[in-house]
Amino acid sequence: MIIGVPRETKSKEARVAMTPEGVRAARLHGHKVLVERSAGEGSGFSDARFEDAGATLLSGASEVWSDAEMVVKVKEPLADEYQFLRDGVIVFTYLHLAADRPLTDELLTKRVTGIGYETIELSDGSLPLLAPMSEVAGRLAIQMGCWSLEAPNGGAGILLPGVSGVAPGRVLVLGAGTVGRNAVRVAMGIGATVVVIDKDSNKLRYLDDIYHGRLVTLVANIATIEAELEKADLVVGAILLPGAKAPKIIKREHLSRMKPGSVIVDVSIDQGGIAETSKPTTHETPTYVVDQVVHYCVANMPGAVPKTSTTALTNATLPYILELADLEPLGAAKRSPALARGFNTYRGKLTHPGVAEAFGLSLSQLPLD
């Protein structure tokens, strides 16, 4: 199979979907890899390293897209990339379609096989290709929250760890999945007061156990969330419904009862965000203020640390890339139920229930029989 690796076009996105080591592995499997020039520079991989690994370097994205049978990316195709979508091409990337109707329509109209990293799901419910970026985003959430709380950046001027004689700031983490656990890890590590809310008591029990009761764990309900929002200096939105829109936990009216200069870091923004006032931002302009509450809603947070993120991501994605290339999409889906769950669109049909529900569209099954 011919695998294409274009340069990412999202603002300040320097990750790349394959490393030179991944190219070398694909070549050993008998596949050809096309890489757009400069695609890996932001992650520390020169064109020379890709060439040494056996990649064919091409000057523009149009060449990569037109010649590739499968295009692997990090972020979803943007509007200026829609022109490259065509019947039969496989696009393997983070899609987050439940928050993106225009892209969903493009993939369906052009009969693209769209496979989302974020919807590949193992039998135990875990998300192996979302997990590494969720770890990065969860840890970054506290780092970016600290930055946003600084007065020059619009925040209340609070140092989360506090200092001698001054109490630490209070962090509210909504969701105890991979993002939430990693946010808790960093927030606890710097000495903040941490509250985590989730509807799953087993996840809360786990956190309470590993931190020996040094954080507050609460079962999710409206009254609890509202009470904790009023006390929080930093709120981390870390709720994920695989393939579906994030629930709007924070309502517009809640903001008037939050502390002036408090911060919401909405890691769930790729799936629409957990606040009614959340809207995607970029690394260039990461924050905005609504009712004196700072919102940090960068839709590609791990892109801020591309060297770490690219390695973590490609460690997880490469086996699936090789499986798709070796067996073709349906063959790979037949062998791997986890991979089959990653199919969002196939030959003009919508094949993921979360996306179908988000837009009220008809759901089709993959033809695996």
What does the secondary structure layout of this molecule look like, with pairings?
Blueprint: E1 2-5, H1 20-28, E2 32-36, H2 47-53, E3 56-58, H3 61-67, E4 70-72, E5 90-93, H4 101-109, E6 113-116, H5 131-149, E7 170-174, H6 178-190, E8 193-198, H7 201-210, E9 216-219, H8 222-231, E10 234-237, H9 252-255, E11 263-266, E12 287-290, E13 293-296, H10 306-335, H11 337-340, E14 343-346, E15 349-350, H12 353-359
Parallel strand pairs: 1-2, 1-4, 2-3, 4-5, 5-6, 7-8, 7-10, 8-9, 10-11, 11-13
Antiparallel strand pairs: 6-14, 12-13, 14-15
Structural notes for this entry:
It is a single chain. By secondary structure, this protein is α/β, with parallel strands linked by helices. It folds into two domains: 172 residues, Rossmann fold (3-Layer(aba) Sandwich), CATH 3.40.50.720; 174 residues, Rossmann fold (3-Layer(aba) Sandwich). Helices cover 35% and strands 16% of the residues. The chain contains twelve helices and 15 strands. Strand 5, helix 4 and strand 6 form a beta-alpha-beta unit. Helix 1 runs parallel beside helix 2 and helix 5 packs across helix 6. The protein is globular and about 65 Å long.
Number of strands: 15
CATH level 3 topology of the largest domain: Rossmann fold
Estimate the strand proportion: 15-25%
Straight-line distance between termini: 23 Å
What is the CATH homologous superfamily assignment of the largest domain? NAD(P)-binding Rossmann-like Domain
**CATH class categorisation of the largest domain:** Alpha Beta
Low-confidence stretches: none
- How many domain modules? 2
